[in-house]
Amino acid sequence: MLPCGTYNTSYSQQFAIICTRLQWVYLICALAFAICLPLFAGSYFMTFLVYFGITAISAIGLMLLSGYCGLWSMGHAAFMMIGAFTTANLVSGGMNFFLALIIGALIAAVVGVFFGLPSGKVKDFYLVLSTLAGQFIIVYIIISWFKGDSGIHIPPVTIGNIAFAHAESYWYIVLAFLIVMTFLAKNITRTKVGRAFVAIRDNDIAAAAMGINTFRYKLLAFGLGCFYAGIAGGFWVGYIGYATWEHFTIFDSIWYLGIVLIGGVGTITGAYLGAIFVRGLKEFSYVISPIVGELIPPTSALAEGITISLPYLLFGLVLALFIIFEPRGLAHRWELIKASVRLWPWAYR
After folding, report:
1. Which residue stretches of 154-213 are H helix?
2. Per-residue model confidence as pLDDT tens digits over 10-24
3. Which end of the chain has a smaller Cβ tally under 10 Å, C or N?
4. Are 236 and 84 in contact (CB under 8 A)?
5. Cis peptide before 345 (omega within 30 of 0)
C-alpha cells in the first residue's frame, strides 16, 4: 500500500521493491545503523544479532519452501547440519571458508531435492513425515561417517590477514550475506517461479490444470530452501568454530517451523520478524529459567529439569497463542500498523 497521494506511473515503479524516496531513506538509515552497531553495542547484544542473522537466513529458506510453496518440512535443521559439516570438513582440510560455504550449501540443496522426491506423490501430513524421516537419516549419516559424534574444530574465518573471530567483526559477514540472500529471495517470489510456488501452495491440482509442472517446482522449492539452510549452517559453524550434531536436532527444526508460523506464512518480512521474536524468546527463557528454578523447592523433582524444559514450554505456549489469536503472524500485524499510520488520523476500522 502506497501513501496517500503517491501513484505509480510506470511498470518499473509498479514492480519496484523500494517504491518511494522515503522508503529509500528508511532503508539507508537502517543499513547505516546496522553497520555502526558494533561500534557501540556490547558483546552480548552482538552475539544475539549474529545468531539472529544466521537464523533469519535459514528462516527465509524455510519460508520459500513452506510459506510460499506450502511444503512443510520437519527436517530443516538437518539440512543446516549438512552445510555445517561440509563446510567444517572442507575448511579443516585447508579450503577457503567461503568456497567451502557455497559447496556445503549446494550439497544441502542436492540432498534436499532428494528428500523432496516424495512430494510428487504425497503432501500435507505425509510429506511432513517423510521430511521427519530425513531428519533422523541425515543425523545418523553425519554421526556415523562425517565425525558428527566427535565434532570438528575449525579456525576463525579470515579474509586476507583479517580474522573475524568475534561477534563484532563476524556480524559484518553475516549482514552482507543476509542482505544478498534477502534480495535474492524477494526477487524469486516476484518471478514466474514465485508465482508457481504460490499457486501450488493454494491448490496444486488447479496449478497442474493451468500447465504448471508442480513436481519440478516442488523440487526447486526444496533445493532453494535447503540451499539457504546450508548457508546458515556454514555460518553457524564458522562463528562458533565447532561443528556438532547437537546443534541441529529435531527440536531446532520445530523452532524453525515456529518462526515461519509466528512471523507470518508467505512473507519475507515474516521470516525476519519470526526470527527476531523467537530468538528473543529463546534468550528470554534462558534468563528466567534459573530464576524460576530458584522459586521451586530444591527437593522437588520439577526443580531439576526446569532450566532445560522452560524454553520449550514457553515456546509451545507462545506458538499456541499465535495460532489461536494471530494466525496470520507478525507480518500481518505489521502491515495493519503501517496502514493505520498512513491513514492517521482518519484510520478506519
Report:
1. 167-189, 192-202, 204-209
2. 767 667 777 777 788
3. C
4. yes
5. yes
